[in-house]
Amino acid sequence: MAQVSLLIGFTLILLGLYGALTNRDILRMIVSFTIADAGVNVVLVSVGYMAHRTAPILDSAVPAGQAAARIIDPVPQVLVLTAIVIGLGVTALMLAYAYRLFRLRGSLDISQFMDLKW
Amino acid sequence: MIRNALIGLMLFILGSAFLTLTMGFEPATELNRTAAYYATHAQEEVGAQNVVTAVLITWRGLDTLGEVTVLFLTAAIVSLVLSRSKAPKGASGSGFLPSGELLTTGTKMLLPLIALLGAYVMANGHLTPGGGFQGGAILASGALLMLLADPSRRFGHKIIHRVESASGLAFVGLGLLGMLFAGGFLDNKLLPLGQFGALFSAGIIPIVSVLIGLKVGAEFASILESLEETEDA
Amino acid sequence: MVSSILILAIGLGTAFGLGLLNRRRAVLALGLTLGALGLMAAMAVGWLIVLAQGAAPVEIYTAGAEPPFAINLRMGLMEAGAITLITLTGLLAVLALRTALTRMGRGSMAVVLVLIMALSGLVMTRDVFNLFVFLELMAISTGGLALLSKDIRAIAAGFKYLIISQLVTILLLVGIIFTYHATGSLNIDDIPETAMGFSGLGLALFLILIAVVLELKPFPANGWALDVYTAAHPGFSAVFSAASGTAMLVVADKLVKAAGPDWFAMFTLLGLISFIGANIVALRQDNDRRLLGYSSVGQLGLLLAVIGQQDVLGEGYLYVAGGLVLSHAVAKAGLFWMSIMVKARGLSDWAAIRVRPPLVIAFATFLAMLTGLPPFPGFYAKWELAQVLATTDRLPILAAILIGTLIEAVYLFRWFGMAMKRETDTPLGPKQIDCMVVLITLAAAFGLGALWGDLSENGNLFATVPMLAALFFLALEPMPAKLKNGLAIMALVYWFAAHAGVYDPMRLIFLLVMILGGAVILLASFNEDGRRVGFYPPAMLMYAGLALLLEAQSTFEFFAAWEVMTLGSYFLILRGKQSEPHALSYMIFSLGGAFVLLSGFALAADGVTPFPLSALSLVPEQVAPWVFALLAVGFMTKTASVGVHIWLPGAHAEAETDVSPMVSGILLKAGLYGLVVLLLAMGRQSLHGVDLVNVLAWIGAISAFVGAVLAVFQEDAKRLLAYSSISQMGYALFGLALMNHLGWLLAVMFVINHYVYKSMLFLAVGGVYKRTHTKLMYKMGGLITLMPFTFVSVLVGIIAMSGVPPLSGFGGRWIFYNAILETDLRLPLVLIFMSGPVGFLYLFRLIHTIFLGQLKDENHQIKEAPIWLLVPQMIFVAFLIGFAIVPGLVLQRVDRFLGTVFGDQPLIWHGRAVESAFGNWNPVAIMVVIVVIFVTLFGILIAKNHDAVKVKQFNIVFSAERPYRPETTHFAWNFFAPYRRAMGFMEMPLVTRFWGGVSEALSGTAEFTRKLYSGNGQTYAVQVILFVVTVYLIALGGVA
Amino acid sequence: MSSFHWVQIPYALLTLFIVLNYGLIMTAVVQKIAARVGGRHGIPFWQNYIDLVKNFAQRSKITHGVMFYLGPVFRLAGGVGLLLFVPTIYGSTWAQNFSFAGDLVLALYFVFFGTLGMALGAGESGHPHAAIGVSRGLAQVTMAELPLALAVYAIAVQYHTLNITEIVAAQQGGLFHWTLFTNPLATVAAMFAFVGTMMRPPFDVVLAPQEIPIGPPTEYHSAYLALMQTNRAIFPVAKTVIYMNLFFGGASSWGEFAIKVFALYMVSAFIGVVHPRFRVEQSIRFFMKWGVPVGVLAILMV
Amino acid sequence: MTLLMLATLLCGAGMIGAALVALLTRQTATAVLAAGLLSLFASVLFVLLAAPDVAMTEAAIGSGLTTFLFFYVLGRIRREDKK
Questions:
Q1: φ, ψ dihedrals at A109, nearest 5°
Q2: Candidates C786, C801, C908, C951, partner chain D, best to mutate (most D CBs within 10 A)
Q3: Best label site of B96, C308, D10, E76, fewest CB within 10 Å?
Q4: All residues at 6 or more sequence positions from C739 whose CB lies less than 8 Å from its CB, including other chains
Q5: Mean pLDDT for chain C overall
Q6: Would the CB atoms of A85 and E35 count as touching at under 8 Å?
Q7: Closest residue of D to C971, CA-based?
Q8: From the CA of A112, how many Å to the nearest CA of chain C?
Q9: d(C-alpha E18, C-alpha B46), whole Å
Q10: Which structural domain range is residue E55 located in?
């Protein structure tokens, strides 16, 4: 189960990267990057998954005593939470840049912005 | 064409690296050292039912603080990026479709529900799945809905900044208090752990969740705000 | 001390707090930001002091739980130092950015605060995921702050930066989660030492490390960083290069320490490639900020390599890495902040800083720090690094580092030359605060130099008297030149008097020539009036170097003195009008020679510090020839032997009137002194069966002959003298290489003779130049009547130099003959015999074309050379004649000393005559006989033609008719045409073509590789992934 | 190493007088022989005396400057000094001149004293032809002197001394003790140099009469020229004396001295008469192709 | 083939399909929509992987806000492009 989701996650990352590196349109690049981020999140969570165990909530169903035996590893989930929000932050910033770049040169093609070279 | 092929080959090799990672990976049957500690000590050390929130806000509080700062940064920089570039003269004017009847009445009906859900998710962060970020996101989607319904509507710019700064400062303040009175920076034993499972339990976690929720909500709103402001030339 | 987590809390608190202020109170917001940064800096400094006094590193736990379960921060000496640097850079950056920040509003100030807080967090945190969060904070704030600059291209740069940080995020996150899965904890200390294997933990660690390396802008994959450097506001670029660079280095160090020694090799390799690659490509840069970008990429590469070498550096690691990091950070921040004041972006537009001398000093200091010249921390660090690398025989790494530093020196000093010599029409920015920021950085630079001096066990350069004197003269700048000149002469005479007694005769001769001789030449500087800013500090720096050279006991002191001398003389030569390219080639050859010396000393010391010079003789057998070869090459670059001589003609010819004699008469002797010390200590060495001393003899002979032949064909008087210096130094080198008593006596004779007549001739030609404003000999002619004293000094000079009997030159030739009769070295003698008469040619050309022949119309009313130039010349004439009559006065003591060295006493001194195993030489008798014959014949001639009257100029050639173009009647141009037809093949500039080829190849590769940065953000992303994949494959290959 | 006694001065003057007269007569005789070879009658052998007296008698009111004035003095002092620094007759007490002052090295380098003085004087005269002559002379002499220097080094190593008297002493005792036979290579190299520096064709482009009016001494006349002509008599003889001492066993009596000097001088005369004039680069290449290799062989073989 | 495994496979196929659509489609709008869809599938997968918090966040932020941001910026750009 974990292996399958890992594979899914990695394929998503690779697809995202492929999209980001081949598409010339900036917005499509940012979309590809969000896909890659989603892939990373899937990988992160699937590493923490353990078979036949439940979510790390200690309530009536999972009393504190048996917690160690019944819940899955909470740490990857914490990391993912932060990672998603940071991913959103960076995406929002890139979108703002994309918009400003568009305002600058009137086009969204990355190869239009090459005056800083050599 | 060759360029894409080269990139494809490169990513294939990267993929092979990832593949060796996946092949070498076998899911743990037993909780590792850190997770086992969290599982056993969640109740008496932090007093929160939701172990994820416990770890998120207390044990790895610095991460969350850093995280919130990320959002604060994004909001500030997006407003910097967009504030100085008013829309070119010709292109201004709210371009949104005039919000239909359905949308305005729907918003009026849904808004309280969304606000209630957001508040609930935020407050019960330590009991049920959810917490500061999720609550904030829901509130932000509420603000988004209002924006969609009435594009010319402007939130009080000052209020958003006030809420954002105040909650940030409060969060840091709580952390410092924790360092002075409790065990360390952001330690939640500043307040009594209270009865396990009750609303006001697990020390400062609920307060921090609320603060995070407010801050995240305010930040998303300010991002939308600065996007919106580029409208009025 | 208060807990250091407060540093983060203050940063964050103020950042959030700024939101509460309303929009219009920008100045208050700026005040708050400065206050917060000041507080953070104060805490950091407090911690630094406490930890520097030996307190143990402090662990800070958060959330009241033990580390693996909560995030912990550590505050050790390295962290405290790094944070102090970061917070102070931040403070000064905010000052530099104040206009941009107030314009952008309090949001941007909050971003700066968060950036500084994130960097401090990066340095302190011990948790991998926390590292990721702070890294993201740094990435986003850097992307944001790129907007501060007025340059609209900054937005594109910011976007490219964000693309790359996305890639880094992906790699880092995957790495972190798999490390967590393998080790069970997110804390760095729990990462076990893993081999570089490529499965599970090994691969995860690889991903984390490669992500951190990417953040350190490695060479092939750093187009994005260069764009940020070029477009961003320089105030921010300083933070980006100094503060973020340092923080990432500390992170890299933490991670690689945890990952284990297996990964050091990868770091070193990547670092060196980045260091050399970036420096080569920087050769072709003409935008100043992009050049600084390349330089900081190179320096980060160097530091990455040093981190890779920490297993070998042991406890000296903090000292070396600290020295290099601080030098890089302070210099780079200073240069970026200076670029705020320079409005235009071309390299030669920095000429605007010449308006304010303190800025020129700052510029020179920062460049010296970057290339690791004394007395700054980089020098001590480079010395320590060289010692360690040589002891653990990692010579290829040392060689790579030295070559990289040399290339960096090339483009930095070319830039300095442009700034000093070119003109620009964009004036300097008027703001005082920017200037004040730069001066604070300058003070920090000197403070660090002193600090690193104290820390180094080899002795602090600032503590030595000569260095203090040089700095003292820096303070004297506003005083009039004549007063400073008097002080300088007194200082030199005092130093000579203080040390004359204590030295052995051989060193006494060098002291006499270098220090007392320097004082005599300085007499000529009385001729200049006004303040003459920028002459005396470099001059005294050079003399300080020379004084320390003679004082040096250990290899460190010798090498430090050598580099101080090079630095001082470079600034002196640069003062000449068209001396820019020549000063640059001088600096490159000198630095190249100095680095060869450094590797030689490091190889010899083999870990023993301080390594006394005399211990060179105890160097083990298999290493000794290599040490000998390296040191000999290093010294020969200073005596300009053939092969490394192309810098000399330009440097000596283009220098100022009173600088040429200093540089030619005195500085070349430093090389000879080095060779004397080397040969005294190591004696004969042979490498693969080739006797190195014979090779030296051959090089000496060839340079003697080639120098003389090339001198014959020169049209420029000073170049002629410069080439003749090469020839004379060749003679002296040959003398030394004979390794027998008389050979060394010959060398000493040459040291004295060459100093006297070369300074005399240079001053004379300088005097003529002052009057005729040209150095080209065919433009002069017939000046004997107008400048009689200069003529006399040149006449005596060439008689002495050509070895014609009555004067002291003949003494040198006589000792030479006796010396070669004792050696079995035959073939080089042919070249030496040939260069004797050839010397005669160029000397006659010098005196004939300038003083004899027809006087040109435009030279009719020129006056005699200024009095102050003539005084030293007359002193030298008197000395020459005295030395010719009584050579024993000086030579006898040296002869006795050499007797003790070589154990034989070939010369027997009878009163004033001297006798050797082969012949005898009675200088007094010769002088008397010649003078008597001369006077009697002169009497006869006067008796016959006593009332002869001077004939008018054209009574000779045109029988009193005036030719259409009288100046052509003076036969001076292409004077030795037949000789050129016969010996022209010698003129082929083989050596110049070789070195030209080398520089062409370098700038060719630079031009080719810099096309790599096409400016397209996507291409940069592809390059980053390609870089990761290639390193992965190589590392995989390495492991398999 | 005998020290200086006042009596040596009259002895030296006597030697000087003998050599001066011998020089004047010999050069005139050789000039006559050269003319006779060319089918001409040639000048009377006392011609040089007439020229000398004529020039001395002529009064001159002009000079071209200090160095021009001192030129001939330097020149003659060089010639006389060279003669007096070298012992002319081996074994005779009074013909040792002032050889105590220095050894072979002094003699070798003192040759340049005269040349330097001459060059300075000619340069001061302001006449372009003088300067051209000087530049040609100096250029040629650099390569011409080289075989001599090599030869001198060879015999110095062979005889382990630089003192001329000791070298001559080592060659006494019969013909086959001369350096000519003990070290033929060095002697051949020296003879190359001898021919090259004797200012006779094929190496006399320096003061070639037709091309540039007698080269450096173009502007000299009256007393200046007189001094130069006395030097032109003494200098070749003094140089030949050195060659004689070094390579041909020196002279034990004035008769032997006269014959050997004349014979040596005739060597350069013979070669000069039949050869056309070399240009400077041709003579330089000639010496580089022939003179220097022989010299190098000499110093390698010893 | 437990039910869980089947559900994950389905989700995975959906996600990869959405990703391919996002990469290959002509108009950017469909690409953004595909990304939103992908993020929804991801949140479902997270529920399957017993991570409810993450699922909620991914749903709220991933599909909700990100998609909106994209559409908003796309709208602005498309409108200014026509002028």
A1: -80, 125
A2: C951
A3: D10
A4: C679, C683, C684, C693, C823
A5: 90
A6: no
A7: D128
A8: 8
A9: 41
A10: 3-82
Q: Which residues of A touch B74 (CB under 8 A)?
A: 88-90, 92-93
Structural domain count of chain C: 3
- What is the DSSP secondary structure assignment for residue C963, as one 8-state letter? P
User: What whole-number distance in Å separates Cα of residue C744 and Cα of residue C764?
Assistant: 30
Instruction: Look up residue B148 and give its two tokens.
Output: 């969609």
Q: Which residue from D213, E23, C459, D200 is spatially nearest to A25, judged by alpha carbons?
A: E23
Q: pLDDT per residue over C802-845, tens digit each?
A: 888 888 888 888 888 888 888 888 888 888 888 888 888 899 99
CA of E83 vs chain B CAs: smallest distance (Å): 7
* Structure token digits, residue D90: 């081996």
Is residue C952 assigned to a domain? no
Give yes or no: residues C926 and C1012 share one domain.
no
Beta strand residue intervals within C591-664, DSSP E: none
CB atoms within 10 A of CB D62: 16
CA D194 – CA C599 distance, rounded (Å): 53
**Distances from the Cα of B228 to the Cα of A37, B218, C907, D179, E62, angstroms:** 26, 15, 100, 112, 21
C879: which 2 tokens? 């000395």
Asked if C143 and C75 sit in the same domain, the reply is no
**What values do phi and psi take at A54, rounded to 5?**
-110, 180
Is the CB of A4 less than 8 angstroms away from the CB of E62? no
C749-778 mean pLDDT: 92
pLDDT tens profile C539-572: 999 999 999 999 999 999 999 999 999 999 999 9
Percentages of chain A per state (helix, strand, coil), in multiples of 5: 70, 5, 25
Asked if residue C432 and residue C469 are part of one domain, the reply reads: no
For chain D, domain boundaries: 8-301
Question: What are the pLDDT digits (tens) for C142-189?
Answer: 998 988 888 888 999 999 999 999 999 999 999 999 999 988 889 999
Q: How many domains does chain E divide into?
A: 1
| Residues within 8 A of A (CB atoms), E 20-39 only | 20, 22-23, 28, 31-32, 35, 38-39
User: Range of C71's domain?
Assistant: 1-126
Digit-coded pLDDT (tens) for A15-66: 999 999 999 999 999 999 999 999 999 999 999 888 888 888 887 777 777 7
Judge contact between C645 and C589, C-beta under 8 A. Answer: no
Secondary structure (DSSP) of D143-205? HHHHHHHHHHHHHHHHHT---HHHHHHHT-SSGGGSHHHHSHHHHHHHHHHHHHHTT-TTS-G
User: Whole-model pTM?
Assistant: 0.91
Instruction: Please judge whether B39 and A47 are an interchain contact, meaning their C-beta atoms are less than 8 angstroms apart.
Output: no
User: Taking CA atoms, what residue in E is nearest to A57?
Assistant: E52
Residue D93 has pLDDT above 80, yes or no: no
Is residue C983 situated within a structural domain? no
Does residue C569 sit within a domain? yes
- What is this model's ipTM? 0.87
pLDDT band for position C903 (cuts 50, 70, 90): confident
Are C507 and C598 found together in one domain?
yes
- Give yes or no for a cis peptide into C375 (omega within 30° of 0): yes
Q: Look at residue C957 and tell me if it is in a domain.
A: no
CA distance C14 to C37: 10
Helix (H) / strand (E) element for C1038: namely helix C1017-1039
Using alpha carbons, list the distances in angstroms from residue C603 to C377, C386, C397, C514, C600: 22, 9, 13, 29, 5
Mean pLDDT of all residues in C683-693: 85
Residue bearing tokens 């503060």: C243
Q: In the 8-state DSSP scheme, what is residue C783?
A: T
Closest-CA residue to C842 (of C943, C741, C742, C708): C708
Give the pLDDT confidence score for residue C275 in this predicted structure: 95
Q: Which of C68, C99, C126 is the last residue of a domain?
A: C126
Tell whether E41 is within 8 A of chain A (Cβ).
Answer: no
